[in-house]
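for the writeup, i need someone to sanity check this before i put it in the appendix. the sequnce is what the collaborator sent (i think, or maybe the updated version? ugh). structure was predicted straight from it, no edits. if anything looks off just tell me and ill rerun, i have time this weekend
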Amino acid sequence: MDSLTPVREAADHFGLAISTLHYWERRGLITASRRSGQRYYDDDQLYRIALIKHWRRIGGLGLSKITELLAEQHRWREVVAGQLAEIEQERARLDTAHDYLVELLTCRREGRLEDCQWFRDRVDLPAHAAAS
């Protein structure tokens, strides 16, 4: 038989607020056992707490996506693959932003950024403005 872990111990162990665990219970993500009005988690629920925490912090999944995953665990690979695709898109966007900002710092002109020649060389203006 699994041992039961008090809610406070589980919260402390995983670095979560007790209110977070209560909220996850209300959302149906985890289930507590009760003894004398106190909440306890069995080992399966502790693993689920760890999984949800990883999905939230490392996987970047929101509670709606986690609820979907837990409700349809047979589809978890599909959902995870979709999340990976989103992360790759965000990574590409951040790489582009990073490269742009690093290059922008090479501008030797002080003052207004729009006067920087590097910037001006990369901006496509309407035809009538370029002819001026």
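The longest helix spans residues 76-104. The chain has seven helices and three strands.
thx in advance!!
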